[in-house]
Amino acid sequence: MYGEAEMLAALRHPCVIAIYGLVVNQEAPASVIEYLRGGSLKGGLQRLKQHGYAARRVRAAIALQAARGMEYLHSRRVVHFDLKCDNLLCDLRDLHRPVVKIGDLGLSKKKATTFVSGNMRGTLPWMAPELFPNASHLDDDQSEDRVTEKVDVFSFGMCMWEIWTLGDQPYPGLPLHEVFAGIMNGSLRPSRPPDCQDDWMDIMQPCWADEPAARPSFTDIAESLDRLVAVYERQETRMSSVQIPFVDNLRKNSSV
């Protein structure tokens, strides 16, 4: 445990929560971590929804920071295993520069080899199908108890779905045993969110590929999201340039 804590404390990246120390207590060990005022990204997204805020640029910027954090973790051979918006921390007070960091590294493991020995770790419905015993999608040469870092990519696709929906719960009302079975046999994936753009779907959907090798890397995901942020920024600028003259004309033509 302490070896893993030391490994995690050595991680340093703007998009990964800093771990400053470990509280040594056999009954209830704890870590001292960086504080972000906004709390979990899940809660931050839901607050944006309550205030009717849904700018695509902000969503893409949030997803990009999470992807950059995961890109760094994978470059350090660390697999998160429980990636979801509840485990991302944020500060969304300035939506021109939203801050998002990977948090809750309690289930993380450092890869000793190309593969990671893993049991049932994670949270439904963010868990990749290969984490389930007897997953029917696995190739014959892929052991069901040997998983790669691509489990995090599957979970990130679920995070992108959460980000677009501003904190909705995947598969609402579906019994857990049906979620379990559907993910395990590859028949269950989230539906397209309302008003979701094709360019967002083009990044999100490949993350849910049944075969881990078919999923993109976080470097690929981050590059795609970086381009998407630029696209949404240009669209926002064009909309502003159209709306401002329109509002000015309304003011000129309105009676006081």
Automatic annotation (TrEMBL):
Protein kinase domain boundaries: 1-229
GO cellular component, one term: cytoplasm
Record InterPro entries: Kinase-like_dom_sf, Prot_kinase_dom, Ser-Thr/Tyr_kinase_cat_dom, Ser/Thr_kinase_AS, Ser_Thr_protein_kinase
UniProt cross-references to PROSITE patterns, sorted A to Z: PROTEIN_KINASE_DOM, PROTEIN_KINASE_ST
Signal peptide stretch: none
Gene Ontology molecular-function annotations: ATP binding; protein kinase activity
PANTHER family per record: AT08303P, SERINE-THREONINE PROTEIN KINASE
GO biological process: signal transduction
Protein name: Protein kinase domain-containing protein
